[in-house]
Amino acid sequence: MSYSHYNTYAYSDRVLALTKELVQQPSISGTTQENQMADLICTILMRNPYFNAHPSSIKRIPLKQDPLNRCAVVAMLEKKPSTKQATILLSHYDVVGVDDFGLYKEEAFQPEALKKQLEEEQEGYLDESARADLDSNDYLFGRGSMDMKAGLAMQLSIMEDIARDEESTENICLVAVPDEEKLSLGMFAAVEELAKLQESGWQFSACICSEPNFSAYPNDFNKYIYTGSTGKLLPFIYCLGRETHVGQPLEGINASVMAAQLAVEMEWSDAFSDQLNGESSPSPTCLRIRDLKETYDVQTPNESYLFYNVLTLHSSPELVMEKVKRACQQASEAIYERLVKHRLAFGTDALAAAVPQPKVYTIAELYQRGIKKFGTSFKQSYETILHDSIRDNETFTEQTLSIARHLSTYFLDQAPFYLLLLQPPYYPHVKLNEKEDQALLALTNDLQKIGTESFQESIVLKTFFPGLSDVSYLRSQGETKVETTLDTFMPLYQQNYHIPMEAIQQLNIPTINVGPFGKDAHKRTERLQLSYSTKVAPVLLRYATQQLANKL
Prior knowledge:
The protein is globular, with a radius of gyration of 26 Å. The strands form 5 sheets. It has an 8-stranded mixed β-sheet with strand order 1-2-5-3-6-19-7-18. Strands 9, 10, 13, 14, 15 and 16 form a 6-stranded mixed β-sheet that branches. A 3-stranded antiparallel β-sheet has the order 4-21-20. β1 and β2 form a beta hairpin. The mean pLDDT is 93. The protein has helices spanning 12-23, 33-47, 49-53, 111-120, 128-136, 145-164, 185-199, 255-266, 317-345, 363-374, 377-392, 396-408, 438-455, 479-489, 501-507, 530-535, 537-551; strands at residues 58-62, 71-78, 85-92, 139-141, 171-177, 203-209, 223-226, 228-229, 231-233, 235-240, 275-276, 279-280, 285-291, 303-312, 359-362, 417-422, 430-431, 459-462, 511-514, 518-519, 527-529. With 552 residues, it is α+β, with helices and mostly antiparallel strands.
C-alpha cells in the first residue's frame, strides 16, 4: 500500500493562528491565568459549528478542593453517536513560568513582539542554534509555543475539519486540562468525568495526546511518535544525625554529610536506570538537598533532607524504594568507614565505636517500632502528626518533611538514621500492549510511512515519551500492588493526595502521542518548528482519528 499521496495540511494557517492565540493567553501553572485559558478554549470551541449548535457538549470539570477554582475542559463532538465509540484528544493548557526570559519576560507570551526583540538583540541571549532558527523564519518563539499550545491548536483545528466534514463518522472527546506542569490535578478531574461518560455507555477506543516531539540528542531532527510515557517517583530521605561541637567533629555524625553521601550514591546511578525495548530511562537526579539548621552556632547540623527524581520504564515503586534503601545502606557504610578511619588515625581505637553507624528505616518500619515502643497510643500520635503537618504546611515537600521530623522526635535514641518516604506526585509508566493493542501499533506504522513517503520526514516510533505526560493516568498496569507501596511509603497518600485509581482501572485506555516538533521546552529559547507542526503533524493526527473511527 502506498502512503505517498498525502498533501500538506490545507489549514496550516489556521493552526498557526490558533497557536498564536493560545500562546498570547498566559496560563502559568498554579495561577488564576489557567482560568482565563479555559475561557479562551471554550470561546474557540464555540467558533466550531458543531459546538455552536450544541453548546451543552462543552463541559467545565472543576478540580476538587482547588483554591484557584480551576477546571478541565471536556468537549464531546458526536458525528456518529449511535456507535458510542469515541477517540480522546488530550492536551494540557498550562505552561511553566517565564522568569528565565529575563529582559524579555514581558514578551514571553507575545510571539511577534518577542521575535522583533530577539532579532535586534546583540548580547548573546540566543545560542548559535536558536539564532539560526530565528533567522530561518520557520520557528515560532515564546512560552508554550512548543509545550504544548501547538498540540492543542492542532486538535482544535482538526475538530473543526471533522465538524465540517459531512462524511465523517468520528466521535471526538477533547480533554484539555490545567496543572499538568505541577501535580496533574486537572487530569484527575478529567479522568473521573471520562469514567462517568463510560458508565453512560461511551467507549473510548484510544487516546491521542499531542505533546511535542523531544529531540533525543543534539541536532536531532527526527520526528517521534510515542506509544507510552515515562513513570516518575520522588523518594524523600530525611537524615537525622548525631550532633557535636565543630571542634570535635569525630564525636558525632553531621546530617549534611549523610545527605551528601547519599547524593553521591544516587546521582547518575546506573542501578536506577531502566532499560526496555532498546530505550533507557535517565538516571536519578537530586531535586533538593539542604540541612535544617536555621541559625549560626558551632553545633553541627543535626537534620537534613533530600529528594530525588526517579524516572521508570518498568520498575515498580516497590523495586525503586528497595534500590533507595540499598543506596542509603551504602551511604551509611561509607560514612562509618571514613569515621572509623579518621578516629583510628588519632590512635584511639576504643573510640572507634563511640558513634554508631547510621541505621536505615522506612516510615513503615519506624511506625511499627513506635507501636512496639509506646503501644497502641502511638497510632493516635502518628495520626495527629499527619493531621497537623497537612494543616500547618502548604506544599507536599513541607508536609512530608514535617511528618518525618515530628515522627523522628520519638526515636532520638536511634540516631543517626536515614528515614525513607515518598513525596507526591506519582506517575505510573504506561505503554501499549503488543497483543491487546496490535491495531493501534499498526496505526503508528502507517503514520510513520505517511511521514516518510509523503513528506520526507524521518519519523521514529518510540515507546516512552521522555517527559512526564498525563497519559500515565489513563491505563491500569497493576495498581493493586502499587497502592500497597504508596500506602507504605507515602504518608500523604489518601490523606490529601488522591489518585483516582478506581476510575483509571475502569477506563484502561491505550494511548499514542502524535504532536508537533520544537526545541528547548521549559527554556527561554522555547520554539516551535512551523513547517512540520502546521503542515505535516495535523495530517497525521487527522489520519489517526479517521482510522480509529473506521477500524478500531
